[in-house]
Amino acid sequence: MSKVWLLAALAAHFTFRTTLGAQGGDSLYAGRHCDKRLTELRLPSLFDLGDSARLDAVLSRGADPQAPMTWAELHFGKDGLLRGVDVRDARSSSARSEIGDTIRAAVRPIGKHPRDFKINLVRVNTRGQIRLLAETATCEPQQHVTPEVTALIRQIHRDAPETNVHRDAVVQFILEPDGSVSDAWFEVSTGLPRVDSLAMQLFHAMRFDPGIVGRTAVAALVRQRFKF
Question: What is the pTM of this model?
Answer without folding.
Answer: 0.84
